[in-house]
Design brief:
Elements lengths: L1 E4 L28 H4 E9 H6 L1 H9 L3 E8 L2 E9 H5 L2
Antiparallel strand pairs: 1-2, 2-4, 3-4
């Protein structure tokens, strides 16, 4: 499992259309313009581990992070969490 700041296949997006959007690079599974308005975290794991992490995902939501996109790249699940930069300044 890997978490890092900042080649999507099938997706579920909370922001914008669910159609595939152009990605700025294969290592960045989100459109470049998202970086201008939000802090982003990319989480990579297997689909089996993703299912086990429901508590961790709930904790991320409690901390103000929203699940923006989930995609699969081969055997790997790629999830993008974000929070707007305005929310970051809030207590």
């Amino acid at each position: 499992m890997t978490i890092c700041p900042a080649t999507a296949g099938k997706q579920n997006s909370a922001y914008g259309p669910t159609a595939l959007l152009p990605m700025s690079s294969p290592s960045r599974p989100y459109p470049a313009q998202w970086e201008q308005v939000a802090d982003l975290r990319v989480f990579r794991t297997t689909s089996q581990e993703w299912e086990k992490l429901i508590g961790w995902r709930a904790d991320m939501r409690k901390r103000g992070w929203k699940l923006l996109r989930v995609a699969s790249e081969g055997s790997e699940m790629v999830a993008v969490f974000g929070r707007t930069k305005g929310e970051r300044a809030s207590p």
